[in-house]
Known about the structure:
Layout: E1 2-6, H1 13-22, E2 26-31, E3 41-44, H2 50-58, E4 77-80, H3 92-112, E5 117-123, H4 154-173, E6 176-182, E7 185-186, H5 190-200, E8 213-214, H6 215-227, E9 233-238, H7 249-256, H8 276-282
Helix pairs in contact: 1-6, 2-3, 3-4
Amino acid sequence: MRILFTGGSGKAGRHVVPYLIEQGHEVTNLDLVPLDVAGVKNLTGDLIEPVTVWNALTQPADFDELEGGNGVRPYDAVVHFAAIPRIMITSDNETFRTNTMSTYNVIEAAVGLGVRKIIFASSETTYGICFADGERKPEYIPVDEEHPTIPGDSYAMSKVCNEATARSFQQRSKADIYGLRINNVIEPHEYAKMFPAFVKDPDLRRRNIFAYIDARDLGRMVDCCLKTDGLGYEVFNVANPDASVDLTSDQIAERFYQGVPYKHEMAPDETMYSIGKARRLVGFNPVHSWRDEI
């Protein structure tokens, strides 16, 4: 597929884009800075400007595209990862404005130009736990996509708003638009640096619902969504199948979630951040585990 990928130069994108290229996709990265990866085409631009995405989707991405003599080839899909990645980087209002307006501009342009597959990055923060003021426990475990989204910060608010935007455009266009509620992204080099501390002090993972997603497996999830047609609008939790701490699910529940009801019986090594829906509907099968890395 020919894919316009926004934010490919970021922490997640710089692993997802190479994975997609390895799978045979043709990827144009639209970001503020280029991505130095073999095979990727780069365009730079600010997604807050409405015309940026429209232009990117309707202009050549590199010199080789001038050789056909048949005009600009259309894109088969848009993958939107570009965003201010958390609170406390800039002002709260700027975080909300940037994330919501960029997402609106991306989806509006893609739908307007007839793109039938749009995948966008939502977040674990939509459940209101990650950036809560004080401790907030989930209403039940494991947390699945039916869990209420009650954000308490500008970043999570922007992601919930983006989900509403996406659902509205899907209703209008009938395109496939899939939102990924991505958990804490871990790059391969971060395992040795971070996970020994998580094993020693599991409380460090409370705000991430004791979950994580390997950046390479995130690429696998995007590819699964690209290959799955006809779902309309859907959101998916995206995480690895195991917890990010060296405790069983029962031990996590006993230590951190006393009084929180189980939605279903959990396997000892099952993540508190359910990926059952992604497995069932798009065939997501993560292969990386922190236990193999350290």
